Amino acid sequence: MIKDLYFYKLFITKFQNAYTNYVTYFMVVLGVVLTCNTAKATDRPEDMGCLVEAIYFEGRSESISGMLGIGIVILNRVRSKRYPNTICDVVHDGHYWEGNPIKFRCAFTYWCDGKPERYNNIKALAKVQEVVILLMNGVTIEGISFATHYHANYVEPYWSYSEDFIYVGRIGRHLFYETIYDN
């Protein structure tokens, strides 16, 4: 987990206003339909660190759109009554034994895959930080803006066949779903 969470608070605060024009420009360059969500996410420094952590370890090799999709799912879960109400609690949600996550029994695989969380790709980390700024400014992707679940295209989780979920699209290697009872 990120040790210096104060850095993320400074990072978000310092660059949030500077990136407002960047967000508008970025929306045109991406080539996907982006909209701004009026419900902004939290700016708690520990939550920013957890959002960076989750997007980095779940999708650092994805495009900006793919990373945005992962972040959108996390923020939608925070807003839902069915999930914990902080970003850190959402990304670390799962089954625990003696205080440790049980392998592959977490909402986000990276958290309980048994591998240590180390930021080895600085370029990818910088890209993720830019995506987090976009998310904190309310950017979302039309079509998946209500998604609460996703999975990689090379796995087939049991829940993806449930009548409780509607497939809403694919970005990169991730397939996105909405929960029908949350809308």
Question: Strands, helices and their partners?
Answer:
Blueprint: H1 5-16, H2 20-30, E1 34-36, H3 45-59, H4 64-79, H5 87-91, E2 94-97, E3 100-106, H6 122-136, E4 139-141, E5 147-152, E6 165-171, E7 174-179
Antiparallel strand pairs: 1-4, 2-3, 5-7, 6-7
Rg measurement, Å: 16 Å
Largest sheet geometry:
3 strands, antiparallel
Element-by-element helix/strand order: HHEHHHEEHEEEE
Low-confidence stretches: 1-31, 37-41
* Overall number of domains: 1
Give a quick set of tags describing it.
Arc Repressor Mutant, subunit A; alpha+beta; two-stranded antiparallel sheet; 183 residues; 6 helices
Question: How does this structure look, described?
Answer:
The protein has 183 residues and is α+β, with helices and mostly antiparallel strands. The chain has one domain: Orthogonal Bundle (Arc Repressor Mutant, subunit A). 40% of the residues lie in helices and 20% in strands. It is built from 6 helices and 7 strands; from the N terminus they run H-H-E-H-H-H-E-E-H-E-E-E-E. The strands form 3 sheets. A 3-stranded antiparallel beta sheet has the order 5-7-6. Strands 1-4 form a two-stranded antiparallel ribbon. The protein has a two-stranded antiparallel ribbon with strand order 2-3. Helix 3 (45-59) packs across helix 4 (64-79) and helix 4 packs across helix 6 (122-136). The model is unreliable at 1-31 and 37-41 (pLDDT under 50).
